[in-house]
Amino acid sequence: MKPKKVSDILQDALSLKQEGSLRNEDWEKIWAQVCHEARPFSYVSCFKDGQLFVTVKNSAWLMELKKRKQEIIKLLEDKTGKKIKDIKFCRW
Questions:
Q1: Exposed, middle or buried, 25 (CB in 10 Å: 0-12/13-18/19+)?
Q2: Which of 35, 38, 50, 56 is the right S-S partner for 85, CB 3.0 to 4.6 Å?
Q3: From CA 59, how far away is CA 69, in angstroms rounded?
Q4: Per-position pLDDT tens, the chain of length 92
């Protein structure tokens, strides 16, 4: 996989922010940017009614993501312009 330029990532994020709604694929891209270190161990299941549902591979990452939940919510809101009420984490 070829690395993307920061300018391309920012352009993608800005274009997503301007659209009315985000698809699951869009959320997955944003999740990878915000939580890149956790990306191999987690993925976005869906975004519904202001809640983001994230599936996590193991207990260690589940605890780490829960600990950072408020920070992650802030980063996701800044990147998408959407209000996120909560993130629900579950094990796969």
A1: exposed
A2: 50
A3: 15
A4: 677 777 777 666 655 444 446 787 899 999 999 999 999 999 999 999 999 999 999 999 999 999 999 999 999 999 999 999 999 999 98
